[in-house]
Amino acid sequence: MLFALKYGVDLEIIQRSSIMGKRTGQLTLPGEENFFEETKELVERLGADAIRDSDGTHLDPKSKTLPVKIYSTYFVARGHNEFAKKHPEECQQFYLMSKPLTAYSSHLEIPYMEGFFPKQVSPDFDHDPKKWWELIDRSTGEVVEPSLWSLKTEKKEEGNHYLLILENAIPFHRYTLSFLAYALWDPTELYNHITNQWGDKPGDIPFDIRKPHSKAFAKSCLSQWLAEHPDTDVVRFTTFFYHFTLLFNHEEKEKYVDWFGYGNTVSTDALEAFEKEYGYALRPEDLVDEGYFNSTFRIPTKAYLDYMDFIQRFVAKEAKELVELCHKEGREAMMFLGDNWIGTEPYGKYFSSIGLDSVVGSVGGGATLRLISDIPGVRYTEGRFLPYFFPDSFSPGMHPEKEAIENWISARRAIFRSPIDRIGYGGYLSLAYKFPAFLDSMEKVAEEFREIHQAVKGQKAYNKCKVAILNAWGKIRSWQAYMVAHALYYQQIYSYFGILEALSGMAVEVEFLSFTDLLENGIPKDIDVILNAGDAGTSWSGGEIWQNEKLCTMLRQFVYEGGGFIGVGEPCATQYQGSFFQLSDVLGVEKELGFSLSTDKYFKTEKTAHFLLEDFSKEELSFGESKKNIYATEKDTEILEYSDGSVHLSAHAFGKGRGIYMAGLPYSPKNTRLLLRALLYSCGKENEYALYQATNPNCEVHAYPEKGLLAVLNNSQVPQDTGYYDGKGRLQEIHLEAGEMQWHRAEKL
């Protein structure tokens, strides 16, 4: 393949192989039984150097004859039903909450299992409900004395109904029951069972390795498994002990999902151990959390943060012992960042102590790729690309190659900033084999990935500034903000998640800080811009923490002395001392809640030209779900977009720095450009903009001055013409085909 290296008036034709040479490897394919010859064909064609099994598949016995590493999926706490059935008291558990019910008289019956899938969860009567359960009057928040309620099971035609009976309810108050339940079916295996219509296949029962029999079994079982699988090179733990919170309803549909949820880590043993160590007991409410189950959108309480830390230390200690068993047998230990990953927080304090060789995770775009590639403390990282080889994507009439290329282009820009070491796929290879166009797309992705990796791995990409994302979670949720289920779209969050997606491939350095980090340690000296984004009252915006005068004073001083502050949505928001945006003096805008309608607002005039708007017209701006009732508080607030009676984009000088407000930022090439301009403008680095920069928002430049290389990417699936600025600010004009990347010379600065 040829490409043009265009610099000044000279045109040089260079073989791409002069950059990377011929490469194979760094690719993992799924295999399955009775599909060996086709697997061998694809291994050779795609240059794969590893094959793996998947949930529901097994490798063909002939696989060991291939010149590849063998990854074997290993489930620590599921897939051993014979053991689990012998020890039903050691099943994993949930704290669940019944549907809120209104009492219409003093007699109230709560069918607390209503709406749950009885094949997945079952109430725990082995441990005294009067001690471990909690009936709450949700009209007052008070706990109802256990002696006032009773339990019974009624036999009805449609099945058993578990009932709580309260005889002295307060009429027209609402009540919920928080109750312990056993987990009868691993959630991922249940999801796969439903998706693939596995019929009568028995579900995997999850057991809790905190319990004595399960703990001993998990270690002895792994030792035996290693002895029985001498051909396994890499043990792919999927993952360790506790699944993220995923509950199904009575119609076998998802009822509640939180990819970060610790709901499945609960047991009476854990609660007793926690109380012994921390000196206080957790209530069911600390875990049920009014029915929100401590979603990452909730501002975490001290009790919940303590519990997370408690679980993380336990998981790290136990996982380390399993990893050491693998190493003793000469095997690598890989962790899948999904399924049972709770407690193995890759950006947490204890992750590196586990001693894992690698982490593999699903790539849904740039932000999820950075979530994997930035993980510290492992020798290598691997991204599992989409689509997964399941019937929902690989059925007659579908075009999975379109999703594959879209997924690759969105992730590729992030790879240039922080490369993963390997890529791979999962599912039924026999399904993918029926789609020749998809196989062609796999070949293209593998070739480009190796090319990028060869050219830039170990090289530091040029960064224009350093931005800190400020929220209640900080580092532990690096690249994980605004997610509910991994990389899935939700209407309420795309306007915020777009910030991370934009940053994932942007020429800036990114750090994640918590409010506690700032209050305890101050603002790091190398931070140029601080960004706070989210709805008021969420963990991302911060809530009442903004009533802390030390925090606000620190940030005001930071901006006054030349730093930048960008607020998106409802930043720094809490009603306090006459303000809703506590840094309204920095931002130059405020939100009208109705309290100040009697105060006139005169500043509504838009600026006709501005640094932030040079790449596109105001009509091209998109704020997603946006916000209403935002108004300028100062005459010198630069209003850049005003419509429907509200400011949606503005900038405001505050000392030597600037505050910038955006009503939302869904991901798009033009919004990525807008955010980059906002970052540079806020901290006074506008001159950085014309260094290693494409003029066309659909294209991006990634520069590696120390190596003398830069890449220009077409991030769209149609041809693009663009200019790009080199390191001296000189403009070059090039043409890129759909999705194309070109390598060019980059002078050292």
UniProtKB/TrEMBL annotation:
Instruction: Please give the InterPro entries that the UniProt record associates with this protein.
Output: Class_I_gatase-like, Glyco_hydro_b, Ig-like_fold, Lact_bio_phlase-like_N, Lacto-N-biose_phosphorylase, LBP_C, LBP_M
Keyword Glycosyltransferase in annotation: yes
Record-annotated Lacto-N-biose phosphorylase central domain positions? 466-686
Q: Does the keyword Hydrolase apply?
A: no
The residues covered by the Lacto-N-biose phosphorylase-like N-terminal TIM barrel domain are 25-463
Record-linked NCBIfam families? 1,3-beta-galactosyl-N-acetylhexosamine phosphorylase (TIGR02336)
Identify this protein by name. 1,3-beta-galactosyl-N-acetylhexosamine phosphorylase
